[in-house]
Amino acid sequence: MYEGCTYIYERERRKPEGSHWLRLHFCLPSPPAGRMNFKNMREYLAWLYYQYLLITGIYVLEPWEKSIFNSVLFSAIAMVVYTSYVFVPIHVHLALEFFFENFGGQPESTMALMS
Amino acid sequence: MGSYNYLGFAENNADFLKTVADKVQRYGAGVCSTRQEIGNLNIHQELEQLVAHFLGVESSMIFGMGFATNSMNIPALVGKGSLIVSDELNHTSLILGARLSGATIRVFKHNNMHSLEKLLREAVCSGQPRTRRPWKKILIMVEGIYSMEGSVVRLPEIIALKKKYKAYLYLDEAHSIGAVGPSGRGVTELFNVSPADVDVMMGTFTKSFGAAGGYIAGKKDLVDYLRSHSHSAVYASAMSPAITEQVTRAMKCIMGQDGSMEGIRRIRQLAENTKYFRAKLKDMGFIIYGDDDSPVVPVLLYMPGKVVAFAREMLERRIGVVVVGFPATPITEARARFCLSASHTREILDQVLHHMNEVGDLLCLKFSRRKRSS
């Protein structure tokens, strides 16, 4: 985490290279040395897609193989998003209840004893 | 930018090749026989004397094929009961020769003298595997310049180790002969080491001389022994006259014996090109392997996808490069290998560097974390 923060800081000091595969999860690949003049967003996105093809290695595959890989990856990500949206709040709620049972937990058992 | 044409002798110039054409007219296109039968021409013997004079050794012998020089002569030098200590990244011809010989093979880490010393110590102390008898011979096999790394062998240290442990040294100068050293004599000249210290000097004529074939040079006893005991010498057909003449003319040019300064000019041009190209690439931020003197420049690409993309992009910009992946290199260390030449001018190099810059930005290849001067 610390390394990621210093990396982003150093990005302003000197323009490092972009997506060396070990550091991909720290930040988006930056067009190196400011030499790449992207005229618009489309070009930048196209370049990002190109980098994605290179890094995952599907650049070398046929177009139909690329589409298969892309659809599998996309459906996996969609399932992850759906599952996290549906289940993460419920799990967080249950976990908090387990650890701090006075956190909106069961009503006090004295009521049951009295009645 | 990928051919092994280090001194530019592979040029297609009709004037320079006149002597070659003459020899073809006189001797024919091929020899069709082995050196031992009727294939021994006087030009072969002259070339052998020339090679010996060039390298500064007693005598030498030439073979028709560079790969076969290694793979067929090592079995003649060592056999069962000997030990071969070879570098991790040796060429296939050396490995094949070692395996064919039947000797025990031990491998040490690339250019790592501690690993080599440990191996030698352990070999001398423990001897052969089961019987514990001393080894008949210990042969250290190294290359002058390793073609996939561009690294130069540490010759003075290996010679010190060889003398200490009484081993023999086999030096394969396929890429370094003609390409390094102030007058092109190879790594022995680069490190200022006497050629008599290296027991078997082997090299090929394929790279710097623009021909084909190989040679083995050393003491007269060694070469005389090989003439009758080596498979390649006895059974393989001899070098063809055209190639012999090409090697002769290239070697005479390098030595300056044809009266012009062309040889020295080419060697100096190659050295200058090497220094310039390497420095510029390092400045740009690419990761480069190898010694600063070696004309082989591997630029690391790392990703398999980028290997293909790099080759295509450079080809679109009309520059041909050689990209290398698995199994010639480890799978995560794919590289593009540039081989510099004396026939590259400063303009050509500038153009290549400019395009490398663009492609490096496009593909995110500038991995170096060194602080750059810009």
From TrEMBL, chain A:
Keywords: Endoplasmic reticulum, Lipid metabolism, Membrane, Sphingolipid metabolism, Transmembrane, Transmembrane helix. Its main location: endoplasmic reticulum. The chain crosses the membrane at residues 44-61, 67-88. InterPro entries: Ser_palmitoyltrfase_ssu-like. It is a multi-pass membrane protein. Pathway: Lipid metabolism; sphingolipid metabolism; Sphingolipid metabolism. It comes from the Eukaryota. It is found in: Endoplasmic reticulum membrane. Component of the serine palmitoyltransferase (SPT) complex, which is composed of SPTLC1, SPTLC2 or SPTLC3 and SPTSSA or SPTSSB. The heterodimer consisting of SPTLC1 and SPTLC2/SPTLC3 forms the catalytic core of the enzyme, while SPTSSA or SPTSSB subunits determine substrate specificity. SPT also interacts with ORMDL proteins, especially ORMDL3, which negatively regulate SPT activity in the presence of ceramides. Belongs to the SPTSS family. SPTSSB subfamily. Component of the serine palmitoyltransferase multisubunit enzyme (SPT) that catalyzes the initial and rate-limiting step in sphingolipid biosynthesis by condensing L-serine and activated acyl-CoA (most commonly palmitoyl-CoA) to form long-chain bases. The SPT complex is composed of SPTLC1, SPTLC2 or SPTLC3 and SPTSSA or SPTSSB. Within this complex, the heterodimer consisting of SPTLC1 and SPTLC2/SPTLC3 forms the catalytic core. Within the SPT complex, SPTSSB stimulates the catalytic activity and plays a role in substrate specificity. This is Serine palmitoyltransferase small subunit B.
TrEMBL record, chain B:
The keyword Zinc does not apply. Residues 4-355 form the Aminotransferase class I/classII large domain. The keyword Acyltransferase applies. Its cofactor is pyridoxal 5'-phosphate. It comes from the Eukaryota. Keywords: Acyltransferase, Pyridoxal phosphate, Transferase. PROSITE patterns: AA_TRANSFER_CLASS_2 (PS00599). InterPro entries: Aminotrans_II_pyridoxalP_BS, Aminotransferase_I/II_large, AON_synthase_class-II, PyrdxlP-dep_Trfase, PyrdxlP-dep_Trfase_major, PyrdxlP-dep_Trfase_small. Belongs to the class-II pyridoxal-phosphate-dependent aminotransferase family. This is Serine palmitoyltransferase 2. It comes from Characodon lateralis. The gene is SPTLC2_1.
